[in-house]
Predict the 3D structure of the following.
Amino acid sequence: MVPISVVIITFNEEKNIERCILSVKHVAEEILVLDSFSKDATAEICSKHGVRFIQREWEGYSASKNFANQQAVHDWVLSLDADEALSEDLQKALRELKKQNQLHTMSFNRLTNYCGTWIKHSGWYPDKKIRLFNRSVAQWQGALHEDLKLPPDEKVKHLNLDILHYSYYTLDDHLKQIDKYTNIAAKDLYNRGKRPAAYKMILNAWAKFVSHYLIHLGFLDGAAGLKIAWYSAYATYLKYKKARGMYAYD
């Protein structure tokens, strides 16, 4: 049987971390949590479940995940965010693959719960993510939406089962996340010397709304689909606005 290390990064994840841990307890030989000095009950919850718990100053998503992968005991890593959990079907499938020694670099669907609604459209599903890999051939890269860099000849198998993503419990959670991510995205644009034109704030925001709500059938997700499209458009607008504001102080 091939052993797996589950690697999770956390900061103030007391709402989510226990669900995540419980979903992998019978899949992994090791659960490793890299925490950026949470101020809530994250550490206590992890201690209760006997996971390996390491604390380290936040260095960004890719750097933190790469560091955590290197601390794992096993080469095969299942990388999850604290607000994610394996569906029961995915848990069973991974246990079976391990028994058969059939682990591969693998991607899974990610099914998102938005303020109590499971989102099946809106460009949010199936949202395929590579999360199982051998750390010897994989490296996270990117400042905001980190991607897994693999060798050109590495084959990725897709398992059509779901990681459950509990993204936002309230609209206020969404707005806070938008503020956080647009700060990172705007700084990334600025650091790369990308000064967005004023028209992009409106044109790209409108394009984002149309993409989520019409092209990706967000209207089929009901009121939640409309909110996703609207706030996604707002995030696009805000990203460019913040980036332009940084240039105003040059």
